[in-house]
Amino acid sequence: MTSNNNNLQISFVHSRYRNEDVAICVLVDVSARVKMEESLQEMAAAAEQASQSKSMFLATVSHELRTPLYGIIGNLDLLQTKALPQGVDRLVNAMNNSSGLLLKIISDILDFSKIESEQLKIEPP
């Protein structure tokens, strides 16, 4: 690095030319490349931070959605044990199926966020 903060790359070659020893020295200003590399490192760090924030957000939202959904599913399960009029029991059954599918989607999102943040643990059956 020079006194004015330029980064220089020095290449030196020693050889013979017309029966004489010669030395060739080349100075290349690599300041732009160094700045570009630093910028890329900063962008990579920012992208990693954004990815972690997204994963944390997905995990939090998934947990927040699952908690009330468990209450809905539990109450629908209780309703299915009661003698209900024919039209109502079909509606309760449809709501129970839909809430089960929604729970599956939310669980998949939570698993995805765990995979992204490398927190998913696979246990043998």
From TrEMBL:
Report which superkingdom the organism of origin falls in.
Bacteria
Documented EC number(s): 2.7.13.3
Any one Gene Ontology molecular-function term assigned to this protein's record: phosphorelay sensor kinase activity
- Signal transduction histidine kinase dimerisation/phosphoacceptor domain location, by residue? 53-118
What gene makes this protein?
rcsC_4
Q: Under what name is this protein listed? A: histidine kinase
Protein keywords: Kinase, Transferase, Two-component regulatory system
Pfam families noted in UniProt: HisKA
Question: Which InterPro entries would you find in this protein's record?
Answer: HisK_dim/P_dom (IPR003661), HisK_dim/P_sf (IPR036097), Sensor_HK_Regulatory (IPR050736)
